[in-house]
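Supplementary Methods. Inverse-folding protocol.

Structures were first reduced to a discrete structure-token string of length 109. This string, shown here, constituted the complete conditioning input.
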């Protein structure tokens, strides 16, 4: 067996692990899924994600915004009202989420 045949050692996570770190976070997939049809105001999104606290929703949205998957838009400043929408990068993740949804339903997991 030559050195060429040996598994390559990585000093950083593989692409699947990097993707799971982004999309696999608690409530992350649900947040993106609820933004698929267009901009959603923060309070409406928090209501749609019934089991998630507003703090958790805010945290996920900030993470997704920093990763370039979600864009925040200020609608008014008094009182503060914001809406979130997916970027093109975020929208491209919908295929992955759709496959995951179908796999889950098909196998009853």
């Amino acid at each position: 067996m030559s050195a060429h045949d040996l598994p390559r050692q990585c000093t950083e996570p593989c692409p699947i692990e990097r993707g799971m770190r982004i999309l696999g976070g608690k409530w992350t997939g649900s947040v993106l899924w609820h933004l698929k049809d267009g901009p959603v105001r923060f309070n409406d999104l928090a209501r749609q994600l019934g089991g998630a606290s507003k703090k958790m929703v805010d945290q996920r949205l900030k993470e997704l915004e920093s990763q370039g998957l979600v864009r925040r838009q200020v609608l008014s400043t008094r009182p503060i009202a914001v809406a979130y929408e997916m970027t093109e990068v975020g929208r491209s993740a919908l295929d992955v989420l759709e496959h995951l949804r179908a796999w889950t339903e098909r196998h009853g997991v």
